[in-house]
Design a protein that fits this description.
The chain is mostly helical.
């Protein structure tokens, strides 16, 4: 899931440039609230790894991708095992075949092997598309929430802070990770609840038909 982490890092690294006057002014807008809650802060940060770990949408998305990946792997392995069985059968019976029969079987096995390779490539492409789709949805959700959060809290800059970031130190009072995760999860739960009636209506309409 490294791609998800990369996308989230891009989302959260909205800016790392701190204005000169913000750094040296004694503005009261830099006050903080205990427990990581921020009010009237000009800037704040979130830990990308923490958000990825505890954001329910991200967790569900990873589980779905992993389940689909396992399913596709099982299908691919079954096809490969079937082809292997045909090859072993050919090896056992080749001495009883005419040259023409053996050549025909070899051509058929070669064709099936090539088709299996193409199928494997198509599965990889399919998983890549699914990954990119999830990345896009994750990007949109986090971006939308951070925009709303910044408007409500008056935060002008929200950036990423973890081991891989360029920030060497940031006060814990600027960490809004827990608050952001809480807001993201609440929004996700509301979204799921709003989708339930629509799904039920679709089922009812299908039954009436």
């Amino acid at each position: 899931m490294k791609n998800i982490s990369v996308v989230l890092n891009v989302v959260l690294a909205l800016a790392v440039v701190v204005l000169y006057y913000l750094h040296f002014s004694g503005s009261s807008s830099s006050s903080s609230v205990a427990g990581g809650s921020v009010s009237n802060l000009a800037m704040a940060y979130v830990n990308a790894d923490t958000v990825l770990k505890y954001y329910d949408y991200s967790k569900v998305g990873r589980e779905k991708l992993e389940a689909k990946g396992k399913q596709l792997d099982q299908d691919l392995n079954a096809r490969a095992a079937s082809l292997q069985g045909e090859f072993e059968s050919y090896q056992r019976n080749v001495n009883n075949m005419t040259i023409g029969q053996a050549r025909a079987v070899e051509e058929d096995l070669t064709k099936k092997r090539n088709n299996l390779q193409l199928y494997q490539e198509s599965l990889s492409q399919q998983m890549l598309i699914e990954q990119e789709k999830m990345n896009k949805e994750l990007y949109d959700k986090v971006t939308a929430y951070l925009k709303k959060y910044s408007q409500e809290r008056g935060v002008q800059i929200i950036f990423k802070y973890n081991v891989a970031s360029d920030v060497l130190f940031a006060s814990d009072s600027l960490d809004i990770s827990k608050e952001v995760i809480k807001g993201l999860n609440e929004a996700y739960q509301l979204e799921k609840q709003s989708q339930k009636p629509a799904a039920k209506d679709s089922v009812d309409k299908a039954k009436k038909k």
